[in-house]
Write a structure and sequence with these properties.
heterodimer, A: alpha/beta, Rossmann fold, 2 domains, 6-stranded parallel beta sheet, 26% helix, B: mainly beta, Rubrerythrin, domain 2, 3-stranded antiparallel beta sheet, two-stranded antiparallel ribbon, globular
Chain lengths: 341, 53
């Protein structure tokens, strides 16, 4: 299967290329970037030096392919997708442009009307843990956002358990610097970004809409930029109808994720690594979920941890494509991470 | 086989002996074998900060 990556000089595009270069059923035949056109991929992604002979080409030179990955900024996929679908290939969009099923959500969260609302119903949200059957026949896969993935996977077992009240769930998310992309901005310069614990989007974050769509819960999301380059940790405070026992939570999470290849339930009573921790997931496609019942108040604290560029973007895209192609889901996604790091 | 009292995971008896302490494969809780036939476990007592002194 021949693949093209549009917007391959960015961080998610680079991660896609890293993963697909080791995929036995996918051949990347073209990578596009207007800013890096004519340059070898190693110029943007030094980890890929001599791993491939590919050279960036301008977006306008994009070829037709069996699968086209769109790793472009939000808003650019909206108009590109109809033509790509008409050419008959599979489209995997890593932007937010086709994630939300409700057209009214786009002006509210992304500041513009969706130009092709008729296509939203045919897009499948690329989270295999929730949409595996629909992904098997999807021609348009909308890969979730990184914070949305961590929070949704943390909350999904609780949302379907009947243990929660209808009060909003507070999601406190921390994300690393690579989540804001490769483009240089003052806020992301080393002098301004290093060492921060910076609150941003305390209300109204765009991923709120995705988490609500996928969990059916009302979500109060607040986000913080923290120092690591990679990683998202979503800490979710969920009001419950009664006090919950730890064993009940294990049963709920095990029922939701027992055979899942990329979700690990972590809540250990011994040792140093008792709860989900993004650091040890860097470079991997795993999402770790955990929980703790409050023995004083009727609430559960749920955790979701992942690498924002892998399970939060490129890895999830490859996992979704593997489902679409009927391949083992772990194909090209078997990296176990590093420890210590 | 029995159930971990902490997380309800299935715990295999295999060749464990009375009094043996082992970690639950799911939640890591240290379990002590209370009986082998039938197989029964409980969370192992934890040493206090003074190492039990």
């Amino acid at each position: 299967m021949k693949a093209v990556i549009v917007g391959a000089s960015g961080y998610t595009g680079g991660e896609l290329l890293r993963l697909l270069l080791r995929h036995p059923s996918v051949e990347v035949v073209q990578v596009t970037s207007d800013s890096m056109a004519g340059k070898p991929v190693g110029r943007a992604h030094p980890n890929l030096r001599r791993a491939t002979d590919l050279v960036f080409v301008p977006h306008a030179a994009r070829q037709a392919a069996d699968v086209t990955f769109l790793a472009t900024p939000h808003g650019e996929s909206m108009d590109a997708v109809p033509g790509l679908l008409a050419s008959g290939g599979i489209v995997v969009d890593l932007s937010a442009d086709y994630r939300l099923r409700d057209p009214a959500a786009y002006p509210r969260y992304y500041g513009r009307e969706h130009p092709h609302p008729d296509l939203l119903a045919s897009a499948v949200y690329g989270l295999p843990e929730l949409h595996r059957d629909a992904l098997r026949t999807a021609d348009l896969i909308a890969v979730p956002g990184c914070i949305a993935t961590a929070a949704t996977l943390a909350l999904h077992p609780l949302a379907r358990s009947g243990l929660l009240t209808d009060a909003p769930v507070v999601v406190d998310a921390k994300s690393g610097s690579s989540a804001s992309g490769r483009e240089v901005a003052v806020a992301g310069s080393h002098a301004e970004r290093s060492g921060v614990m910076r609150a941003y989007a305390l209300t109204g974050h765009r991923h709120t809409a995705e988490i609500e769509q996928e969990t059916g819960l009302r979500i109060a999301l607040s986000c913080h930029a923290v120092d690591p380059v990679r990683g998202v940790l979503a800490t979710c405070h969920a009001p419950t109808t009664r006090r919950i026992e730890t064993k009940e939570l294990w049963q709920a999470y095990r029922a939701a994720y027992g055979p899942e290849p990329f979700v690990r339930i972590v809540h250990e009573s011994e040792g140093l690594f008792r709860e989900p921790e993004p650091k040890w997931l860097a470079g991997t496609n795993y999402c770790e979920v955990g929980f703790a019942p409050d023995d004083r108040l009727p609430r559960v604290v749920a955790l979701g941890a992942l690498d924002n560029l892998v399970k939060g973007a490129a890895g999830n895209a490859v996992q979704s494509l593997n489902v679409r192609l009927g391949l083992p889901e772990a194909t090209a996604l078997d990296f176990l991470g590093l420890h210590p790091l | 086989m029995t159930e971990c009292p902490e997380c309800a995971a299935s715990v295999e008896s295999h060749e464990k002996i009375l009094g043996e302490v082992f970690a639950c494969p799911e939640c890591g809780t240290e379990l002590e074998v209370l009986g082998t036939d039938p197989f029964a476990v409980q969370p192992a007592p934890k040493e206090a900060e003074d190492w039990g002194e």
